[in-house]
Amino acid sequence: MKIQGYWLASGILGVTRSIIRKVAASGADAIVTKSVGLSPRKGHHGPIITHSHGGLLNAVGLTNPGIDNFAEEMGNLHEFNVPIVLSIFGNTIEEASAVAERAVHLNPDAIELNLSCPHAQIGQIAHDPNMTFEFVSTVKDIVDCPLFAKITPNASDYVSVGIAAEEAGADAVVAINTLRAMKIDIYQKRPVLGNLVGGLSGPPVFPIAVRCVYDLSGALSIPIIGVGGVTSWMDAVEMHLAGASAIQIGTALLQGTDVFTKIKNGVARYLDEQGFKSVQDIIGAAWRSRNGH
Ligand SMILES: Cc1cc2nc3c(=O)[nH]c(=O)nc-3n(C[C@H](O)[C@H](O)[C@H](O)COP(=O)(O)O)c2cc1C
After folding, report:
1. Short-list 26, 121, 24, CA closest to 81
2. Residue 191 and which of 59, 61, 122, 180 are 20 to 30 A apart at CA?
3. For ligand 1, is residue 259 a contact (CB within 6 Å)?
4. Which domain holds residue 36?
5. Test site for ligand 1: of 6, 8, 12, 41, most ligand atoms within 8 A of the Cβ
6. Sign of the dihedral defined by the CA atoms of residues 54, 154, 151, 222, in that order
7. pTM for this one?
8. SS3 category, 11
9. pLDDT tens, residue by residue, 219-234
């Protein structure tokens, strides 16, 4: 599949027929499923969602039906004529291999390997380039479609993690997952989320996502799929300038699915006004201008 356009990010909306019909009709160029693991997972106890400083704080905990039970939902998704990226995770190499083997049978257009949920066990993988290499290369050997590695800004050296993913054969890196964060109820005097810690998404994470995409695009040769706080066409342009070939949109969708149309129209207007023929002309342009081109 082509790594371009504006995609539904993993885990934000359910993947029922009616939701996906709406998202596809609103112009999403691809749909990334919720991350699916080997066995069904209930996730963390509540509260699992709260708000803070204009962002969303979630500790859903990778709730999912397990890969074997996901076949039916996946079948429903294929009818919409939009590429489907199946997001998978495994807590161990053996688990990741088992999920990948089953994932292939669901015929996704690509697989996104979640190495980075900040409120689940797998959160640690993308902190370590060696572990990232092992997980990505194992899954890459199994799957026959493009493989994307989703990494985290919570790692101190996410650029080395991105390089490890590329060396292991990833076809693109997805940056970023949510940031570890907390909200405390000042009257109850304790953390709001049942899991205490959650992942922050939405507008407050946008500048961090831009920095990560920029750093990664300077170090990698594979495409970067930018995600994190993109809410408007201006954000999308900025993310492309930082180096994102495609952009995923998550939290902004909670305001309505028309965000895809608004972003696409706004970016098209910007390109036209600025005299660019296509979005390709601005991908990574912030690097080129720094280098004096
Ligand atoms: C409620 C919720 C559930 C999420 N579930 C997943 C998930 O299952 N797998 C995953 O890789 N990312 C998951 N994410 C992270 C998003 O895909 C995205 O990386 C992050 O929210 C930043 O983008 P945004 O600011 O546009 O939402 C989830 C985010 C939220 C808010």
Report:
1. 24
2. 122
3. no
4. 5-290
5. 12
6. positive
7. 0.96
8. coil
9. 999 999 999 999 999 9
> Catalytic pick from 117, 176, 216, 286?
117
- Which 8-state DSSP code applies to residue 82? S
| 212: annotated active-site residue | no
**For range 240-260, the mean pLDDT:** 95
Angle of helix 71-78 versus helix 17-25 axis, rounded to 10:
30
pLDDT at position 16, please?
A: 79
Task: Indicate the number of domains in the chain.
Answer: 1
- Residue with CA nearest ligand 1 atom 1: 12
pLDDT tens column, 61-103: 888 899 999 988 888 888 888 999 999 999 999 999 999 999 9
DSSP SS3 for 262: helix
CATH number for 157? 3.20.20.70
* Model confidence band, residue 43 (pLDDT cutoffs 50, 70, 90): confident
Q: Cα angle vertex 22, ends 172, 10, to 5°?
A: 30
Determine the average pLDDT of the residues in 4-19.
90
| Residue-level pLDDT at 87 | 97
CA 206 – ligand 1 centroid, Å? 13
- Tokens, residue 230: 């993109």
- At a CB cut-off of 8 Å and minimum separation 6, what does 54 contact? 202, 203, 204
